């Protein structure tokens, strides 16, 4: 069963890496930030469109990077839509823990569905050099939400 799960996770990552969702420029974005991983060359620009209540109405990205970086950005843009800035920050922190350790004991039930969706990227913890690839989009999300223009995985 473990091998089947690993195969499924690899398929999810490959699918999002080859056909990323929300890979486009948002012309009417309220917030944007550039992310850079100088160690491997992953780069992205994240765009956020906020709803009147401050929640994330739309999220998109452009850039170039490895399959893990692209899949993470793709999954992230799908997952944060409809979230408040606070929820998005909490999700980013929990994802970082998932990517670094493979688990997220503090995830609780409030974002359990979202974390389950991100579970395919949990395997990067076995490859420390790839953790920065997986977390780049999330660092960039935090930067955009905070009004910063740039983020780095360093």
UniProtKB/TrEMBL annotation:
Gene3D superfamilies: 3.90.1010.10. Residues 9-113 form the NIF system FeS cluster assembly NifU N-terminal domain. SUPFAM superfamilies: SufE/NifU. GO terms for biological process: iron-sulfur cluster assembly. GO terms for molecular function: iron ion binding; iron-sulfur cluster binding. InterPro entries: NIF_FeS_clus_asmbl_NifU_N (IPR002871). Belongs to the NifU family. This is SUF system NifU family Fe-S cluster assembly protein. It comes from Roseicella aerolata.
């Amino acid at each position: 069963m473990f091998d089947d799960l690993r195969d499924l996770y690899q398929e999810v990552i490959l699918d999002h890496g080859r056909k990323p969702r929300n890979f486009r420029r948002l012309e009417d974005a309220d917030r944007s930030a550039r992310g850079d991983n100088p160690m491997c060359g992953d780069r992205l620009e994240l765009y956020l469109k906020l709803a009147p209540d401050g929640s994330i109405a739309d999220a998109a990205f452009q850039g170039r990077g490895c399959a893990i970086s692209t899949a993470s950005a793709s999954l992230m843009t799908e997952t944060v839509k409809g979230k408040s800035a606070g929820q998005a920050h909490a999700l980013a922190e929990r994802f970082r823990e998932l990517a670094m350790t493979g688990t997220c004991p503090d995830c609780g039930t409030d974002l359990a569905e979202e974390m389950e969706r991100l579970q395919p990227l949990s395997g990067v913890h076995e490859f420390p050099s790839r953790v920065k690839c997986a977390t780049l989009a999330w660092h960039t999300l935090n930067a955009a939400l905070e009004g910063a223009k740039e983020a780095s995985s360093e």
